[in-house]
# Entry
Amino acid sequence: MSDLQLETPRLRLRLMQSSDLDDLLRIFGDPKVMASFGGATFNREQMERWMHRNIEHQNLHGYGLFSVILQSEGLLIGDCGLEHMKVEEDQASELGYDFRSDYWNQDFATEAATAVRDYAFNVLHLPRLISLIRVGNAASKRVSEKIGMRFVAEITRNGISYWKYAIDGISNKHFIERPNGIRISN
Ligand SMILES: CC(C)(COP(=O)(O)OP(=O)(O)OC[C@H]1O[C@@H](n2cnc3c(N)ncnc32)[C@H](O)[C@@H]1OP(=O)(O)O)[C@@H](O)C(=O)NCCC(=O)NCCS
# Structure
């Protein structure tokens, strides 16, 4: 398995692995986190399916959601990364993130998403990233804005309303020239 990882001042983003199950369940089994998805918490079986879908996605597309480790504690506190999806007839790369609720509002999602944004443009050379944020998810909207994304439109997908945010690789040029001191190892 590749040992690809992104390092930021406080975080390490590494490929997701089967042994992350319990730590991910700590996030997706939390009603505060799942309130953002308007749904019930995951049980172990649902978590396992979600995690394996992400690992398969990673193998198929060469990118996926990373597990985010807080370096000072060696603790998995979130996921952050990319998902290839079809949105309104277009193929898109979506930047997403979910964090443990006891670590919210400490800029961790923004720090992780910044690293993924720069990895997507500088290494994967993706032309554009989008984020689909359920209407009303103010914290996620704020993270998108903090990493330089712009509101595009409100869209409906599978019967759910989303704010679509986007950022282009070219408009991101100044980030490419000054990539925030993020280290990528492979
Ligand atoms: C969205 C999420 C990942 C953000 O993680 P985080 O580590 O707390 O994010 P950050 O600390 O980097 O930034 C959060 C920002 O939102 C702001 N914020 C938080 N709650 C808010 C609210 N209810 N209304 C307005 N702003 C809010 C914070 O003040 C902060 O902005 P600031 O730095 O300008 O003060 C986290 O809330 C989460 O996991 N939510 C559940 C899952 C989810 O919604 N995932 C995204 C799906 S699109």
